[in-house]
Queue: 2 jobs
Job 1
Amino acid sequence: MKFYFALVMALCAFFSSASTLPDFPFVAVTGQSSKQVAPDSAKLSFRVTTFHQSSEVANAQLTQSANKVLALLKASGIADKQITAFELDKSEKRKRDDNYNELEILGYDLNRRFEVEISDLTKYPALMQQLYATDYVHELSTSFDTSTRDEVETALIGAAAAQAKKKAEQMAEGLGVKIHSVFAFNDNGSFDRFFATFAAGESGMVSSAMMADRSAGVQQVFIPQSIEISKTVNVIYKITP
């Protein structure tokens, strides 16, 4: 019994900085589950960036390159609704003196970010190779995903919850107490900020970065064989002596 109260006091000290604690005895546990899944879709993001002393020339270069990119996407079977083009960003680049004071304008930076949803990964490698060879295209980044994510995550949450319950039962048995009922639970956050995670939070997407290598002067693009999807479940159980 002394150990039981010591556990409650330790939890109180640990979480006191996060939020108000429940006013009853409890045990807090975390369950985790993960699975490797083959990807079948991807989200590609990149920027088209130009610089020139003349705004007009920089804009013409950006327009020409963006049009070339859009033509490549269309030729790869990407529909307009799968493409998101963000607002054009323009900034001045100035010469600075030794004190970092701005002097005359050297030119203008123009850039536009694009996001592309790719539903057919067989077309992904060739598209990436063409984008690598396109002038003014920078910051290419890819996250891979699966169309079965919802089903996979539902199963993972169930497995993680079962693991959390088993942990709670083992702890209760070892301390000579009983699990009474579930007080609260969530599927995001981490144990070190356990109580804070019961407020509004966000769920991150698990993704795998695209890999590339050089061979004979040509970028070789690889699609990952699998991506890891994982879920964490935090649970607070009421306990009774």
Job 2
Amino acid sequence: MDAVEDGVSEKLELPELGIDEDVDDTTIRSKEAEAILSYLNTYEYATLRHVIFQLLWHTGVRTSTLFAFDVDDFHPREGYIRAIHRPETGTPLKNKERGEREINLADEVVRVVRDFLDRHHPKVEDEHRRIPLIGTRAGRAHKTTIRENIYRITRPCHYTNDCPHDRTQSTCKAARSKHASKCPSSVSPHAIRKGSITYHRNNGWPAKAVSDRANVSQEVLDKHYDKGTPSQKRKRRKEFLNNL
């Protein structure tokens, strides 16, 4: 493009990152997730927002995977949901065919998704004549819609009616839905994924099983997703002492 003179790249000094400086530690704790789910079960049961948060937390999938689910991918009798790579119709998986898998669902999650389909799902096709699981009256919910719903529900004022930042809800800009991402406590779907993976590991899931479920390599899982504290990781290892 001839946008800069020759030799500029050689003059730039790139910063050297420390061993953990390229890692984002933003995550959601299990207590926060449980409080949000308790609120959703009571006040927003089987709504689109409930299903979005429930599936992200329970499965640890990426937003792109949640976005790609169709109604036909959900198998309530067998208790699982399929992730399928469909690039030709607008829903590729990050790892393509290697990202395809069947993800087991707990009974309570199956019940929430089934009730959503029975009570609130619009049964509207997308532009490729597929019926998306995360659907709205306009078709497949956009990834932005998924993110906005997560920002809104993870604000403490939304699910506890209290603010840990000593703000007044009537004057707080972040208390308005369209500015939910401005709340210091709200998090993105990626933080839900990291919190979910950490929760799985803290509850005894082997790294390989979590790696397969969330479709992430064990190396990346350990570095970027598993946010267990040193004490939590020590307790995980304790069960292996008897094998020495």
